[in-house]
Every structure is written in C-alpha cells, then in structure tokens.
Amino acid sequence: MLTKAFIPYKGYYSTPFARWQGTMANENSIKLGSATSARWLAEKNWDPKMFDYLFLGITIGQHYVFYGSTWAAAMMGAAGIPGVTLMQACSTSTTCIFEAAAGVETGLYDIPYCLMTDRCSNGPHTIWPNPKGPGGEVESENWMMDHFSKDPWAGGAMIQTAENVAQETGVTREECDAVAFRRYEQYAAALADDRAFQKRYMFPAEIKVSKKKTVLVEADEGVTPSTKEGLAKLRPVLPDGSHTFGAQTHPADGNVGVVVATREKAKELSADPGIEIQVISYGYARAKKGFMAMAVVPAVRMALEKAGISINDVKAVKTHNPFAANDIYLANEMGIDVNSFNNYGSPLVFGHPQAPTAGRCIIEGIEEVAMAGGGYLLFGGCAAGDTGAALVLKIG
C-alpha cells in the first residue's frame, strides 16, 4: 500500500481518440504526444522544468523511439530531465503511473510526469536479417496486424483468447451483444450537454495538415453508433464465436498525460486543493496460456488486497475491455453487476491506441468519483501475453 504518492486534481489530460487511419494517422506519436503535453502545460501556466523524471509509455514503434523518453522530455520543454521508455501493451499506462508513484513513495522523485502515446495507424513494418535464408531472403514483421493476429507463446489471435474464455465459462453471444450495447449507452452519457463529461478532462490534439493548415481534433473519431437490432445482425468474428466486431474494440491513435507528485506538490498544482487523489495500490497477474481476459481478475484482487478494501468499498470501476467477455467474466468472478461499471465510456466503444488506453480510463474514473463526492476508484485491464494490471486510487 502506498501512502505518499498523489495526482493533482486536473493534473491530467487525454486527447480524443482517433480511429485507425484517421486524422492522427500520419503523426509520429512521440512528437504528437510531446507537443500536446507542451500545449497543455502552457495552458495551465506550468513550467515543464518542474518535472524530475519522465515515463514515456509507448508500444508501437515510431521513428527515434530509441531516444524516446529523453527526446520527448526535450520537446516538452524539460530538456534537463532523464526518463525511461516503458512498453507493456494495454497495461502501459497503469504501470507507468504506478512506477512513478513508487518512485515518489521512496523519495526518488518529487514530480514525475507520465506521457503515454501510441499510433496504431500506419504501424511500422520491420525487416530482420535472415543469414540462412536462400537468396538473401529476409524475415519481416508487421507491428500491428502480426501482433494482433498471433501471440508467439499462446499461438492464437487476440480474439481467440476472448473466445477461449467465453467457451470455458459459458459466455454467450447474447450476453456479449447486451454488454456492447450497454457500454455504448454509457459512452453516450459522456456526450450529453455538449460533451460536458468529456470536457472535464479532454484536451485537443493539434495536427498540421499542411504548412498553411492546422486542425484540432476535439472529439473522438470513429465511434460506431450501436443498436440492439444492429448488433444482433452482425456475424461472429470467428465461426460460432460469441463476439462480433460490435463486441470488440478497434485500433485508434491518441495520447494521455498524468502528473504524479508528493502530497505537498500535488496540493500546490491541484485545481481544487480540497480534492486529493492518492495512488493506493497496484496489482498484476498472468493467466493461463491463451486466456487473456482471465488475467484481470487476479490483478484486481491483488490491488484490492494491498489496498485493504473489498470490491464493495469501491465507488467506481473502470476496465480496459477489448472484448465484451472481459467485463462479463470480471463481473461474474467479482460478484458485481456488469451493467454498473464503465460509466461514461470504455475502450470497447472509444477505441484502443494501446499505451494511452488505460490512462484515459483512469482519468475518466477519477472524474466520475470526484463528481460522486469521493471514494475509491478501481481500474483493471488485460494486456498482451495473457497478463493483467490493476490500480486503486482514493479520491476525496
């Protein structure tokens, strides 16, 4: 259990998420994330030089990722600080925030900054030497499609892991469709009153289309409207499977920034010094081979145990749910109503840019709990390699 690490209220942002091959498709995500952070900090009149370390979370290669963390720090305006580049697929944000908090807890840092950014669009294509190949043939790797389509250890595609869990635990197509529609209804609530909820935390991305034209991405791109009837008409992704394209997430682009600090520094930076956001605990797990969705449950249980609370003590739950079966399995195992969590949005609807996905979920959860008067926030999500990570925060 952590006692010394805090997040300033409003000391975070998420850009909108742009659907695969959308407005952000041609941007180097390290450059875009750094530029967005710099603009956000300038709007808040915060000097980037106040940070003492940078955690750069990124999972999909970009030009100059070799220098990722220090390059990003310099482009943000914090050229004097070191950093680390962290990759953990869908759990990247969760782990970046925890590692920053652990550093504050031990006195290593005062104000570390977490920048999580990715671009699924136009993913790199890597060529590897193959000295034994006939005629100088090479081995190649497509970062996006190859990794989504095959886990080198489990052997199957991402969707297969969800179907494995559905088949073993009896999750039906009808249940998946129902959860997918419920998640769309919850996302729609974030759009009410001219997107009042999203405007509590969302910061636009600025894209230079040409030398003379710049556009602001101010809202999510590519969210597909859902109806019960429309979902029922879709075919399963895999033969006889429980998931259609309407019950799984889609690749996207975007970035997220989160400030972590000591209690004193967090209070100085907070938009409301009366609201404290404390990082309490972290959990992690790995499920059996090819059953990724199951990993969330033991990770969540670990985080709750380390926090010294139960699921019934939690005010809000947010999840990274690339497949509807993730939330159904979690709800069944934890004894909670699957319709009661992921209010205001989840990756199942707004998309999945990898590294920043969990960060946006955590930020939304903070705002939901703050609106409700405070309490505990639980986040849990799966990640590639049948792993999971969870975080407990206390807002109040």
What report would you give on this structure?
- The protein is α+β, with helices and mostly antiparallel strands and 396 residues long.
- Helix content is 33%, strand content 20%.
- Strands 1, 2, 3, 4, 5 and 10 form a 6-stranded mixed sheet that branches. A 4-stranded mixed sheet has the order 11-14-13-12. Strands 6-7 form a two-stranded antiparallel ribbon.
- α1 runs parallel beside α2.
- The mean pLDDT is 97.
Can you tell me the CATH superfamily of the domain at 158-195 and 279-391? Thiolase/Chalcone synthase
Q: Which architecture of the domain at 158-195 and 279-391 would the CATH scheme give at its second level? A: 3-Layer(aba) Sandwich
Total strands: the figure is 14
Rg, Cα atoms, Å = 20 Å
How many strands, what sense, and barrel or not for the largest sheet? Answer: 6 strands, mixed
Which key terms come to mind for this protein?
globular, 13 helices, Peroxisomal Thiolase, Chain A, domain 1, alpha+beta, 396 residues
The gist of it:
The protein is of the alpha+beta class and 396 residues long.
